[in-house]
Amino acid sequence: MSNAKDSSAVTTGHVMQPNGRPRPMSPHLQVWRWHVTMLASILTRVTGSALYVGAILVVAWIAALASGAEAYATFVGLAGSPLGLLVWFGFTVSLLYHFAAGVRHLIWDAGAALTPKAADGLSWGSIAFGVVASLAFWAYLFAAGRVSL
């Protein structure tokens, strides 16, 4: 059983509300007002994917170490270049943010901080931790002379 209203909803992807305003049949990113928990969710997925690339870099480092002095020197030269350091910094941000996001999810799994305000606070905290802890880690590496440009 369908009527004209139902068939137009299928073709347009919208349904009319009683007040006459068209609404999408299902929520979409264009409909939602952005908030920090959406950003945190997307960042968690992106950083999780970036960690796969970082894991490959760590394996390449170990392989270069096992392949001898010349291979290791080549790897260190590439990893220590400005572009290499930027990649390692990105890996560090991804790792630390993803860790904080995991803790955020553990808190939610425990049934705590489920109100929108608390969830937003945890999301901001995860993002801040990822950035600040990475900057602190790299500042230490530069200050200790472990890394230089």
Automatic annotation (TrEMBL):
PROSITE patterns noted in UniProt: SDH_CYT_2 (PS01001)
Membrane topology category: Multi-pass membrane protein
Note accompanying the cofactor annotation: The heme is bound between the two transmembrane subunits.
Classification via SUPFAM superfamilies: Fumarate reductase respiratory complex transmembrane subunits (SSF81343)
Name of one Pfam family that matches: Sdh_cyt
Necessary cofactors: heme
Disordered as annotated region, ranges: 1-24
Entry GO CC: membrane
Coiled coil ranges: none
Compartments it resides in: Membrane
Binding site for heme: 98
GO biological process: tricarboxylic acid cycle
Subunit structure comment from the entry: Part of an enzyme complex containing four subunits: a flavoprotein, an iron-sulfur protein, plus two membrane-anchoring proteins, SdhC and SdhD. The complex can form homotrimers.
Family: Belongs to the cytochrome b560 family.
Function: Membrane-anchoring subunit of succinate dehydrogenase (SDH).
Protein name: Succinate dehydrogenase cytochrome b556 subunit
Gene source species: Brevundimonas variabilis
